[in-house]
Amino acid sequence: MHVQLRRPAADVAKDTDVAVPANADSMVVLVLVPVRSVDTSDVAREEFELRLALTGRPTDTLFRAGPETVTVVAGDVAMHVALSPVYVGIGYDAHDVIVTPSDTVLSVGDTITLVATALNAGSQPIPGTPVIWTSLDLAIVTAVDRTGHVTSASQMGDGRVEARLLTGQADTSVIAVKG
Predict the structure, then answer these.
(1) 89-138, pLDDT tens digit by residue?
(2) What's the rounded Cα separation, in Å, for the pair 59 and 80?
(3) Nearest to residue 79, comparing CAs of 44, 31, 15, 41?
(4) How far apart are CA 4 and CA 17, in angstroms?
(5) Fewer CB within 10 A of the terminal residue: the chain, N end or C end?
(6) β-strand 2-6 against 45-55: which pairing, if any?
(7) 135-156 pLDDT, tens per residue?
């Protein structure tokens, strides 16, 4: 993750990269920055513009947060700043996602690979858009992996598998599991 703190005059106070642990869904980042100004109460404080960028391979920016104005006070041990990153990678501008097949029938223990296609405003595919696959009925449909590969469980019935884009759009496939 790339962290940058700028002073109001666009002077870069801190520009650094921070390693993000695998499978982390949140983290605490400690950034030390010297404070230059002093106010009338003789307490050193300074205002900065905070920006974050989470990058993929090798330098593709996937998520951005900020700019957020923060005031740093000399001597403060820590400051909590909650940022909400926005996805800006491939498919950030998707308007819809469609799963195929939309419904199918499997026997107990059978497998199928579902395909999710992200679509832009003109209903054209956006190749390479990340998809999060989830079984909504684990007793019926299990082992959904990141490629859309699905295995039916031992319980019969209608199982739903959802494909969700990082921007929130989702579609569901119904898999009827028969004996």
Answers:
(1) 999 999 999 999 999 999 998 999 999 999 999 999 999 999 999 999 99
(2) 27
(3) 31
(4) 9
(5) C
(6) antiparallel
(7) 999 999 986 788 889 999 889 9
Paired tokens of 109: 């223990």
Of 87, 111, 143, which closes a domain? Answer: 87
Q: Which residues, at least 6 apart from 83, have a Cβ–Cβ distance to it below 8 Å? A: 50, 52, 65, 66, 68
Domain that holds residue 73: 2-87
The three-state secondary structure class of 51 is strand
Residue pair 129/118 in contact by the 8 Å Cβ criterion: yes
Residue 18 has pLDDT above 60, yes or no: yes
Task: Tell me what pLDDT residue 52 has.
Answer: 85
The reply to whether the predicted model has a pTM over 0.85 is no
Q: How many domains does the chain fold into?
A: 2
Instruction: Say whether 112 sits in a helix, a strand or coil.
Output: strand
CATH of the domain at 164: 2.60.40.1080
d(CA 137, CA 46): 52
Residue 168, Ramachandran bin (φ over 0: left; ψ between -120 and 50: alpha; else beta): left
Last residue of a domain, one of 87, 115, 132: 87
SS3 128: coil
